Amino acid sequence: MRLLIVEDEKRLAASLAGGLTAEGFAVDVVHDGIEGLHRATDGAYDLVVLDIMLPGMNGYRVCAALRAAGHDVPILMLTAKDGEYDEAEGLDTGADDYLTKPFSYVVLVARIRALLRRRGGGSGSPVVTVGALRMDTAARRVRLAGTEIPLTTKEFAVLEQLALRPGQVVSKADILEHVWDFAYDGDPNIVEVYVSALRRKLGAALIRTVRGAGYRLEQAP
Questions:
Q1: Which of 55, 54, 53, 91 shows the shortest CA–CA distance to 74?
Q2: pLDDT tens figures, 120-142
Q3: Distance separating alpha carbons of residues 50 and 8, to the nearest angstrom
């Protein structure tokens, strides 16, 4: 999943980006509201972590502008403030959730995953099941027919993109966009490398190549 962090505290932003990247997310970071609005408008993000107190344009205005333009990307607002009024104002502008600094990193990750599951139309369960394949997105564990399959962070992220749309063709560009960050300018065939690794671990028949279109996750028997 691809996240955008809009946070002017550079040390905090770098810390969050490092942690979330280790969790398997593709993360982009900007430090002011105007750039945040521009990037969120143009980029295909799955979620935006948005500070309220920002230079250029505050988080309330960024959130309101995104919603006014019809963007429904989940927004988790961060602020050093505290109080019901601030929370109400953030939610009234269209934010999906709200977290007051200082916050627990574990809570932040849990809120992000909950918002992503909600957007996906799920019941809130962190477990994705496709036939005999079972992915626990909270514990980052995969089982196939009851046997645990160890995956690297990037392998898990690629498989997650396919498992969230079982039976559907997912393009290489779509996988690149959501698993690698905005700054990635390497060989797009990197996706094929990770799909090949997944096939070796899960079985060649589980991930089908649809020539000229992308990849499709089949139902595991």
A1: 91
A2: 644 445 678 888 898 887 677 89
A3: 10
- Dist CA 99 CA 106 (whole Å): 12
Q: What is the pLDDT of residues 148-188, one digit of tens each?
A: 999 888 888 899 889 888 888 998 888 887 777 655 667 77
Q: Looking at residue 55, what is its pLDDT? A: 94
Tokens of 145: 């027919």
CA distance 90 to 62: 11
pTM of the complete model: 0.65
Query: In sequence order, what are the beta bridge partners of 190?
Result: none
- Closest by Cα among 92, 39, 41 to 65: 41
Q: Which residues contact 79 (CB under 8 A, 6 or more apart)?
A: 51, 52, 53, 59, 86, 90, 98, 99, 100, 101
With 0-12 / 13-18 / 19 or more C-beta atoms within 10 angstroms meaning exposed / middle / buried, residue 139 is exposed
Chain CA centroid to CA 137, Å: 11
- State which amino acid sits at residue 24: G
Q: Which residue has the higher pLDDT, 178 or 86?
A: 178
